[in-house]
Amino acid sequence: MMIDKKTLIKINAIDVNYRDIEDFDLQFDVMKYILSCLSDKQLDAAKKLIEVTKVFEKNKKKEEK
Questions:
Q1: What is the rounded distance in angstroms from the CA atom of residue 3 to the CA atom of residue 11?
Q2: Are 55 and 62 in contact (CB under 8 A)?
Q3: Crossing angle for the helix pair 5-19 and 24-35, nearest 10 degrees?
Q4: Mind listing the pLDDT tens digit for each residue in 6-59?
Q5: Are 18 and 24 in contact (CB under 8 A)?
Q6: Contact 64, 55 (CB under 8 A)
Q7: Cβ(15)–Cβ(7) under 8 Å?
Q8: Is the model's pLDDT at 65 over the cut of 90?
Q9: φ, ψ for residue 63 (rounded to 5)?
Q10: Cα separation, 1 vs 32, whole angstroms
Q11: What is the pTM of this model?
Q12: CB 30 within 8 Å of CB 18
């Protein structure tokens, strides 16, 4: 998937602003809104990506020790 520079800048701005939300309930509301825009297939793919990333991160930490 190729993302153009303009879109990448928008994604980065959203990411930075999202991370600045300190209240977890508000974070959840924003994430729920964003994810509600995805289809069930896209939600499943996002869930799988998160699971794979967590395993990768865990293995990376083990290798660093």
A1: 10
A2: no
A3: 150
A4: 999 999 999 999 999 999 999 999 999 999 999 999 999 999 999 999 999 999
A5: no
A6: no
A7: no
A8: no
A9: -65, -30
A10: 24
A11: 0.78
A12: yes
pLDDT at 50: 97
Among positive and negative, which fits the CA dihedral 40, 46, 47, 52? positive
Q: How far apart are CA 21 and CA 31, in angstroms?
A: 11
- Give the residue carrying structure tokens 């701005």: 13
The type of residue at 59 is N
27-59 burial, b at 16+ Cβ within 10 Å, e below that, comes to eeeeeeeeeeeeeeeeeeeeeeeeeeeeeeeee
Residue in this structure with the two tokens 């309930």, named with its chain if needed = 25
Tokens representing 65? 């020790």
